[in-house]
Amino acid sequence: MPMARGASWTVACVEAGITASKAAVYRWRKAFERSGIEGLVDRRVLNGRAGVSLEIRTLARAAWRQCPNGKSGSVYAVLKEKCAAAGVVVPSYGWLTDFIRYEIPADEKIVRDDGMVEWRRQAAPRHTVERADVANELWQCDDTPLDIWLRAPNRDGSWEVVQPFATAIIDVHSRACMAVGVWTRTPNAWSVALTLRKAILPKASRFAPFRGVPQRFAMDNGKNYRSEAVSRTLALLNIVAEYCALRSPNQKPEVERLLRTMQENLLPRFPGYKKAHTISREAAAKQVLSLLTIEQLRAEIDRWVEQYNDTHHEGISKSLDFTPRQLWEHTVVPREVEPDLLNRLLLQSDTRVVTSKGVKLTLRGGEPAEFWSPALVEKFGLTVLLLFNPEDLASVLVADAATGLPICEAYRMGIDGARYGQHDIVQAQQGRAAQLAGVADRLHAYHEEAERGDRLSPERTKELRAFLEEEHRLDAEELLTALPPHSPRLALTAGLTTGDTLAHVRSADPSTAPAPNDDEGGDDDVESKPRTAPRPRPAKRSVSAPPAQEVGEEADMLARLIRLQSGR
To answer: Are 184 and 365 spatial neighbours (Cβ–Cβ below 8 Å)?
Structure first.
């Protein structure tokens, strides 16, 4: 026996297979020391008052199930009828209340009182299964209304009380919170898309390395998750969509627990917490100036997320002191995406024409807003594509409408803390005008330089000029032999310029020479002398003499060459 080895009573009972509480074990020990083996005998059996039989217990359980949401009194009335019909003794009312309290399991009470749906939510068996082996393998997403009141500005400058909502994304393997989006309206497809964009892109803080594209994305079965925009985005990013069954939060317990932790640990710190003395909307409206704005709550949640990711999480390991950030960094599988593609997929878009004051966009309440950047000055009149977050219109992304290539980020004008003002627009426009004037001057100088560069060198020009003059002299000599003896001769002497030579060539052309009696003198002119026979052509060339038209063309070509060389 274990007692013979000097083991304790507790160890001895465990080794003997006795399942009892520590108090019962010590009570049995004292009874054995006081009365021996007889002290361990149930005295109710010795006195003829044995425990309630199994038949009565079965009747009591049946009576309890027959009275859904019934109190102990109604159950006891049904039990008495059943015991009378079965011919057994009716137990006491106190026994029935103890039986209901201690012997009926809690999950059976939930099924009887609230139904199977509530039983699945509260009492269904939970099986811990490691559904992801590395970080960024499986993300879970869910949204919930936050238990806090916020204040939002109206167009007339007053404040109104609003109900915020949150959309959260968590990495299942590392339990790292990838992103939390906060909105002042019911979550829709765009809130899911914007939160996914925030989770994928690198974070502003260097202490938050969480980014990348997951392999799978688990989410609810609501219409905001089933929308075409979300489905198309996940497909283009090669993310497998996993939809949970209807009303089955246990299929994504990690993100459910994250939202509950944020509700219980963060929100009670701020004014307007709903569960603090059950603050209603009317009560919050009386202290509206003390409530947080949506921007302040977003900043507080971002700080809380950084602390959450650097705190030990029991869901990772109860023994090892791992934080979600450490486990994510050690097991992440990098899978990046181009920010431009992500912006095209996950931001709202609209086309606008660039004006002298930038681009205009109408806000949700119908208020017009202007966005400007220095890069838009040279895009005046161009149709551009605006990519923007409807919940944060402090700036918009501007891209080329035809190619989709990014141009700049334009910032909103006319608000407190605006990055640019009207004087920035004036300075940019003046600088653009000066730049265009300088470009015109540089283009003119470039054309002049190019024209000078295209001219021939002086040596080559001399060679070409001598060659053409020699060719022209030979052709002129051939032409002289074909002219009448009393017609003007071509003079190709050293004293004549090339222009004079061309003039003589043209005057020697019979097709261009004036006809007899066609000058201003008319018939009063002196009779022309009779023509003599032409001289024989010299035999220095075997080719025939060029016609007068070809001589004129060569003369024109030489004239153009001379004008080109002289720059006129």
So the answer is: no
Euclidean distance between CA atoms 311 and 324, whole angstroms: 7
- Return the H-helix or E-strand segment holding 197: helix 189-200
- What pLDDT is stored for residue 353 in this prediction? 93
**SS3 at position 216:** strand
Place of tokens 């020479």: 513
Statement: 347-427 belongs to CATH 2.30.30.130 = yes
Q: Which residue numbers in the chain have pLDDT < 70? A: 1-10, 13-14, 17-20, 42-51, 116-130, 205-207, 277-278, 317-320, 364-365, 391, 439-440, 450-457, 460, 476, 479-568
Q: Quick one: pLDDT at residue 515?
A: 46
Domain ranges of the chain: 20-122, 138-331, 347-427, 458-512+536-566
pLDDT at 437: 76
Amino acid found at 6: G
Q: Give the span between the Cα atoms of 193 and 198, in whole angstroms.
A: 9
Residue-level pLDDT at 300: 94
**Separation CA 217–CA 234 (nearest Å):** 8
Residue 50: what pLDDT?
55
Considering the entire predicted model, what is its pTM?
A: 0.52
The per-residue pLDDT for 7 is 63
> What's the rounded Cα separation, in Å, for the pair 19 and 13?
7
Amino acid symbol at 291? L
b/e burial code for range 321-359 (CB count within 10 A of at least 16 → b): eebbbbbbeebbeebebeeeebbbbbbebeebebeeebb
User: H or E element: which one contains 389?
Assistant: strand 383-389
Q: Report the half-sphere exposure of 305 (CA within 13 A, side-chain side).
A: 25
Q: Catalogue the long-range contacts made by 179-183 (C-beta closer than 8 Å, 24 or more residues apart).
A: 179/305, 180/262, 180/301, 180/302, 180/305, 181/391, 182/146, 182/294, 182/297, 182/298, 182/301, 183/294, 183/391
Q: Regarding the domain with residue range 138-331, which homologous superfamily does it belong to in the CATH classification?
A: Ribonuclease H-like superfamily/Ribonuclease H (3.30.420.10)
Dihedral sign, Cα of residue 19, residue 24, residue 30, residue 31:
negative
Question: Can 138-331 and 347-427 be said to share one CATH topology?
Answer: no
Give the residue ranges of DSSP H helices in 90-188. Answer: 93-98, 106-114, 116-122
Residues 338/378, Cβ–Cβ less than 8 Å: no
Structure tokens at 366: 């119908």
Mention every residue, 6+ apart, whose C-beta is less than 8 A from residue 357: 370, 372, 413, 425
pLDDT digits (tens, 9 = 90+) for 171-212: 999 999 999 999 988 888 888 988 998 899 887 766 678 888
Q: Secondary structure of the chain: what % helix, strand, coil (to 5)?
A: 45, 15, 40
